[in-house]
Amino acid sequence: MNFRKTILAASLSACAGAAMAADKVPTLGDVLKASDIAINGYIDTSYTYLSGSGTFTSGTADRVYDRERRSFNLHTVDLSVGYQPASGFGGFAQVDLGSDAMVSASAGTSSTDDVDVQEAYLQYASGKFTIIGGKFATTAGAEVIESPSNLNFSRSILFGYAIPFTHTGLRATYAASDALKFFGGVNNGWDVVKESASGDGGTDKTLELGVSASPTKALSLAAGIHRGEEPGNVAGQNGMRSLLDLVATFAVSDALSFTLNYDRAEQDKALVGGDKAKWSGIAGYVNYKLSDTWRVAFRTESFDDKNGFRTGVTQKWKESTLTLANTPSKNVELRAEVRRDSSDKSSFNEPGNATNKKNQQSAALEAIYKF
After folding, report:
1. Nearest CA among 240, 236, 164, 167 for reference residue 202
2. Which of 54, 128, 214, 215 is deepest in the core (most CB within 10 A)?
3. Whether 340 contacts 330, CB under 8 Å
4. pTM above 0.85?
5. Nearest 5°: CA angle at 189, between 186 and 192?
6. What share of the chain is helix, strand, coil (3-state, %, to 5)?
7. CA–CA gap between residue 34 and residue 18 (Å, rounded)
8. Is a pLDDT exceeding 60 seen at residue 301?
9. Distance between CA 51 and CA 29 in Å, rounded?
């Protein structure tokens, strides 16, 4: 009832203002903003060129979202709605439409259409504690699903192959101060919206614990652990999976920043014969603001798939990416990118060639509109 009263009061206030000023007519956005309801989103489109097929010899994709060889692409039309007060109940929902939705869709939802509920959760806040329940993004990694929040167009190897995208469960956060926060939670595991579709028996849960800190204005640190049983390569063979994720960002100035991301994971009984699988990687980022409207970003990383559990090939995979971005207005960002991937194995498929290659080149143009 209080929520309805808030909306009604905001509507009456906006209408009263409109009556006093004939040139000011309240829009739905005005009413929602006055009610602390946030609606926003973005449209992400691109043209991508890959020298290879976009897959490894195992058949696993060697890209996250930019999988088309030579194509114009509609990656995402993202829409989010949230009412998240500092105290009391609230909620948040985010829907993605486009080709990216099929990639990050969780087990238990369709991965064959262009629609995915990326996040949807109920929230309760009281003092320094916040609790959410539902589906939410992982805390792991330096990159996120939302393209505008990343430095580069293409996603990192670590984002796609070292960590999960989302979880479904409960998460509690304790803000000890503005500079120090702790979180902990329990969920269905890696990218599982309902346990019956997880393939691990439908009962196992994953625990997550983490901390984020900003000891100085220029430095931010984050560490997280995820641990729980996940399915392996053999049906019905589950094993304990553990992930350690570390992220550090240092802003040298308003124009220059550095980020470092390290991930290490292992899973018991993941391989045929019941052997353990291990994977690890490290990624470094540099972002430099050339002017108010131009910036350049560089990323380089290395991923060691020691047993081929994540990519289907036992390999050491590296990539380096250079992105030039322009923001002609506050709502638009244009990006141009070149990238080179390489492996210590001939794991990249290349159409038209009898032999596979140890490397792949790519280029892309991206346009983002935020609203």
Report:
1. 236
2. 54
3. no
4. yes
5. 120
6. 10, 55, 35
7. 14
8. yes
9. 45
What integer pLDDT is reported at residue 34 of this predicted model? Answer: 77
3-state secondary structure of 274: coil
**How far is CA 306 from its chain centroid?**
24
For residue 269, the one-letter residue type is K
Q: Are 222 and 247 in contact (CB under 8 A)?
A: yes
Rounded Cα–Cα distance for residues 27 and 237 (Å): 56
Residue whose pair of structure tokens reads 């979202």 in the numeric block = 65
Instruction: Let me know how many helices (H) and strands (E) the chain has, helices first.
Output: 4, 16
Helix (H) or strand (E) holding 12: helix 2-20
Side-chain-side CA neighbours of 243 within 13 Å: the count stands at 26
**Is 144 exposed, middle or buried, given 0-12, 13-18 or 19+ CB atoms closer than 10 A?**
middle
Q: What are phi and psi of 157, to 5 degrees?
A: -60, -45
Nearest partner of 139 among 56, 209, 63, judged by Cα? 209
Dist CA 310 CA 160 (whole Å) = 10
Q: Which residue has the tokens 């080149």?
A: 361
CA–CA separation, 369 vs 371, rounded Å? 7
* DSSP tag of 109: B
Q: List, for residues 204-238, the tens digit of each pLDDT value.
A: 899 999 999 999 999 999 999 999 999 999 988 89
What is the sign, positive or negative, of the torsion defined by CA atoms of 328, 332, 338, 341? positive
**Residue with structure tokens 């190897």?**
157
pLDDT of residue 2: 47
Tokens found for residue 1? 């009832």
